[in-house]
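Posting for a labmate who doesn't have an account.
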Amino acid sequence: MFEQTGSSAPASFAEQLVTVDLPQLEDQVALRFERVVRAVIRRELGECPAAQAALESCSLVKNGVTMVLRLDRESDAMSVFADLGAPPDCLDHAGALGKLLEMNLHNTHPGVLFGRNRDSGRLVAFMRCHMFALDDEGEVCIGCLELLSRTVQAVRTW
């Protein structure tokens, strides 16, 4: 796979990187993302018009929580965003953001981060998983969706 220098020692890591075809790797990541999303949506929704719409938007509802799946090409990771909604009436906006920051700091929900959508002002939760950590059948991704949706349900009760 990698070329070796004239000596019997393997080429340096830097020399080996020269032979890696980055555009081809990026294509593989994008194809893997498509396969995983397709598998997850088929398993969750089956074959129906709603499944086609979910494929086109890369979004679905699980346990009453709307989630959007996106490929982050810079990190080769899938990001899953879940809508927490507007801050609850019992907290002002600053109080809600402060509570989310505390949850991030104390890692109260491992693997899940909280924030605010700049455009809508709505609160969001998200997870990120490297594409090569996901299986083609979507098992790992479905587990992430389950964890994220259950976390959002729990946080919505604050």
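Reply:
Got it, the structure tokens are right above this. The longest strand covers residues 77-85.
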